[in-house]
């Protein structure tokens, strides 16, 4: 019996995240922010420990906190979008067949309007919290 050949993914390897940009821009932004955050979070933790030892570094910590906050935004938005998708059983942000979606709405009385707004509400609260943090934090 000949050895089985592995199926080939013509989009490229998983290590090349740039391959996502051509067919899934939202996924590319999500993965790029995640890869940056892995390294930056470790450095941020070290920076906080240094700040606790030498409290005079408040302004650089505020700047790094702002960068980390902005980079977490796509992650938070995707989580909120996934929750809306799950809670609505695919009606919000799902790629359902129009006939199936109509039958589903008719049978279960599911209207995804509020759940489609959920990620944007979460994003607005996140942005307002960022503005409040930056305005009220005086290092």
Overview of this protein structure:
The protein is mainly α and 139 residues long. It has one domain. Helices cover 68% and strands 0% of the residues. It contains 4 helices and no strands. Helix 1 runs antiparallel to helix 2 and helix 2 packs antiparallel against helix 4. The longest helix is centred in the middle third of the chain and has 30 residues. 6% of the residues are buried. The mean pLDDT is 81.
Give the arrangement of secondary structure elements.
Blueprint: H1 25-53, H2 58-87, H3 98-108, H4 113-136
Note the main attributes of this structure.
139 residues; mainly alpha; flat; 68% helix
Beta strand count: 0
Order of helices and strands: HHHH
Number of helices: 4
Proportion of beta-strand residues: under 5%
Mean pLDDT across all amino acids: 81
Could you say which overall geometry the principal axes of the C-alpha atoms support?
A: flat
Q: What number of domains?
A: 1
Give a quick summary of the entry:
The chain has 4 helices and no strands. It has helices at 25-53, 58-87, 98-108, 113-136.
